[in-house]
From TrEMBL:
<protein>
    <submittedName>
        <fullName>GNAT family N-acetyltransferase</fullName>
    </submittedName>
</protein>
<dbReference type="InterPro" id="IPR000182">
    <property type="entry name" value="GNAT_dom"/>
</dbReference>
<feature type="domain" description="N-acetyltransferase">
    <location>
        <begin position="6"/>
        <end position="175"/>
    </location>
</feature>
<dbReference type="InterPro" id="IPR016181">
    <property type="entry name" value="Acyl_CoA_acyltransferase"/>
</dbReference>
<dbReference type="Pfam" id="PF00583">
    <property type="entry name" value="Acetyltransf_1"/>
</dbReference>
Amino acid sequence: MTESAWHLRPLALEDCDELGRVHMAVWRDAYAGLMPADYLAGLSDERCADNWRLVAARAGDVAEDVAGGVAPRTLVVVGPDGGLAGFGSAGPSRDEDAPTEWELYAVNLAASARGTGVADRLVDELVGPRSATLWVVEGNERARAFYTRRGFVDEGGRGEHPATGTSEIRMIRRA
């Protein structure tokens, strides 16, 4: 599929059920062998959809400063068939020791969207030219290679995924 067949748009409340299913399917695929199998098997599409409804409701309550990019933002990926194929989110850093003010929270794509250029578009739209950090699961070599290609390097920060204890590394890109 060509890049032009894929579209990005802001998360809407009506996306949440489908995004919950897509998000959890991406996690089960991307983190197989990296996170405990019982944790991945127990992921709930419904709970995820409920969380996305909270995010969508908050986004509607916050006046986004798109030019300054001060509010968290989530974009969904719409595939050529009109269905959702992933999302990306970014916003102010959540880290107490943040080396940048901005954080790329997630770029999660279904296998069908990988290699289409849409992940690059998500980073461009969500981060732009600013400095930013992100957290990536250690061992997720596909994601690390993508972020490295986009100018991110291992910053030295280490953490753990709260629910599983899976090791994560912080990467940074300076503008």
